[in-house]
Write a structure and sequence with these properties.
By secondary structure, the protein is α/β, with parallel strands linked by helices. It has 11 helices and 14 strands. α5 links the parallel β7 and β8.
Length: 374
């Protein structure tokens, strides 16, 4: 059942082709085409907070539109006794939401971009990538270890994480520690940490902790030198729904779009996912996009890491017609220069190809085999 996110009356669209017409200009009675705009999300508290933040931004842009939030559980939310890397489902946290989108039960869906496969199902696109918050990973310590860092924990201390990416990198950096899978939403994982003696610390996304209001639980931030990352908030829509696509595109943050295109292109070329440890880091400065990418063996002992850069300083060209709907690794961003998007995508592909030429395929192949037998 839909849960109201705003009670404001919505308004309809302008007539297409009218003088100065904006397809999103509120002019009716009850939302786009006289209806509320339905926003799909996972049921977890963090997912709801993230979705609420996106709806809030949309309401600021379109104060006369009405939004309803439709929350649902996904495969990843239901299977909590198995490691993400072992479930074997590419759309763990997105499939049910995309089904609702396909059936027109919702108009847009808010995701963590890291949950979206680099190859989206036909008919869908990422219509908005929001400004990236702190992308770093954070360490939350058991109360008895308050004030410590990972390097100061005793030998064989157990660290909880649901990510092969995090575990592989941190095993390499902190070989005296042991890493064990931990599943559940943020509330559940923190409860497991605090109420039991199973874990000395757990690794979580700093942005998620901040959104939940639990920034005070962060005992240590892991910089790119410790743990490369991936993540941002994304809005998925039907690729042919121009009205909704135009509406959410206002949420695009150009810098984050270019970073995420490069990252997703890198992951796609390597066929990266939950079952192999692949990590990235991006920096956009003075019109130059820097991409660092790495692959790891499961125990972190074998790895390859390289950095490449490219210029993304291109003027925006207003082009009407089919080119408006070009996707780059599943992302449609009309308000970001197309040449810059192409450069970002090529950067990701080229960096992945460089790592493959240096032996990444073997590292990843062994990692997949070992993960399958664990």
């Amino acid at each position: 059942m839909a849960e109201p996110a705003a009670a404001a009356a919505g308004l309809g669209r302008a007539e297409p082709g009218g003088a100065g017409a904006d397809p999103l200009l509120p002019q009716g009675e009850n939302g786009v085409d006289g209806r509320a705009i339905r926003v799909g999300t996972r049921r977890s508290q963090l997912a709801r907070i993230q979705t609420d933040s996106v709806v809030m931004m949309l309401r600021e842009l379109y104060p006369d539109l009405c939004f309803e939030i439709v929350a649902m559980s996904t495969t990843g939310d239901k299977i909590l006794d198995t490691a993400l890397s072992k479930i074997g489902e590419k759309s763990l946290f997105t499939k049910e939401l995309e089904t609702a989108l396909e059936r027109n039960e919702v108009d847009l869906v808010v995701h963590s971009l890291k949950d979206l496969p680099t190859c989206l199902p036909p008919g869908f696109t990422i219509g908005a990538v929001c400004k990236r918050e702190n992308p770093l990973d954070a360490v939350v310590f058991h109360p008895k270890n308050c004030g410590k860092t990972l390097s100061l924990l005793p030998e064989k201390s157990v660290i909880g994480t649901s990510s092969l990416r995090r575990a592989a990198q941190l095993k390499k950096k902190f070989p005296h520690l042991e890493f064990r899978d931990i599943r559940g939403n943020l509330n559940t994982r923190l409860k497991k940490l605090d109420e039991k003696e199973d874990f000395s610390a757990i690794i979580l996304a700093a942005a998620g902790l901040k959104r939940m209001g639990w920034e005070n639980r962060i005992g240590q931030l892991l910089g790119p030198e410790d743990c490369l990352y991936a993540g941002a908030l994304a809005v998925e829509v039907r690729a042919k729904d121009q009205e909704i696509l135009n509406m959410v595109s206002a949420l695009h943050d150009a810098d984050t779009v270019l970073c995420c295109i490069a990252e997703r292109a890198f992951m796609k070329r390597l066929e990266g996912g939950c079952s192999i440890p692949v990590a990235v880091n991006t920096l956009l400065k003075d019109g130059q996009l820097y991409l660092t990418g790495a692959v790891y063996s499961l125990d972190g002992s074998d790895s390859l890491k390289e950095t490449m850069q490219t210029s993304v300083s291109y003027p925006h060209q207003n082009e009407d017609g089919p080119n408006d709907d070009v996707q780059h690794v599943g992302i449609t961003a009309k308000n970001v220069p197309g040449q810059a998007q192409e450069a970002a995508e090529n950067l990701g592909v080229e960096l992945a190809s460089l790592l493959l030429s240096k032996g990444a395929k073997h590292i990843l192949s062994v990692a997949r085999q070992l993960n399958d037998t664990r």
